[in-house]
Structures are given as structure tokens and as C-alpha cells.
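re: ur question from yesterday

yeah so i grabbed the chain u mentioned. its 144 aa long if i counted rite. heres the sequnce exactly as i have it in my notes:
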Amino acid sequence: MKIAIGSDHAGVEFKKEIAAWLAAHGHECTDMGPYTEESVDYPDYAHKVARAVAAGEYEQGILLCGTGLGVSISANKVPGIRAALACRPEFATLARQHNNANVLCMSARFTDSAAIVTTLEHWFAAEFEGGRHQRRVEKIEQWS
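ran it thru and got these C-alpha cells back, copy pasting raw so excuse formatting
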């Protein structure tokens, strides 16, 4: 699967871990920046990843910022994106199963390496269930 990843300065180190995990699990990963811990504006990178996913260049995206909130809000401004902030691994599962989320957002300041890996495992193990959830996703798409 082709995955685009991005962050703000707070998520740069975790992106390296995520990229390594994705590669080890057979995914193709593109880091869309930033590449240093120099202060940047998270909407710039959230929009870059979200636009690439919405355009079909990547199947999914992963975003990090200090809390995960800013990148989630920013990514969800792009039509066709359903970005979900996964504060716990179970949120990642449900975001995929019930919301057909296509961008995973995580906190770089309130999550540790083990939780990041567990969240990734949950995200990639889950599949959209369709059914009653399809109707709801269609409403989300209709209003974006």
C-alpha cells in the first residue's frame, strides 16, 4: 500500500519510526516533510498529505503534530478526506471499520513508541465494514 506521511516539527522523530515500520510491513512510504525539528506550521504538511491522498496518489496518509488535533482539523478541510485522531489503538480500529478513515492522525507529544506501533497495527488490521456505516460515510462525503 502507498502511504504518505507528514508532521510538524514535533513529529519528525516518530515519522522515522513509522516509515521503518511501514517498510518492514511491505508498505511504500513517502515522507512529505518536514525533515528537521525547526518550527513549522502543521497545516502546510497536513494539507500536503491530505491533498495527495484525496487525489489518489496515495491510498492512505499518516499525520502527526504535538496533539494530533491540528493535523486532524487541517486534513479534514480537504474534500474526500476522513482524518481520524487515534488517541488509543482502538480508535484506529473503529475509525477504519466505521468511518472508512483514510488519514490516521496521532499525537507526537502524548504518545510513546510502543503506542504508535500498536496504533499502526490496529489501523492496518482493520477494514471498513460498510453496511449501515456506508450510508453515514456517504453523508460525510455529500457535505464536504
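noticed a couple things. The domain at 2-142 is CATH 3.40.1400.10 (Ribose 5-phosphate Isomerase B; Chain: A,). also The helical segments are 12-24, 42-54, 69-75, 89-99, 113-125, 132-142.
anyway ttyl
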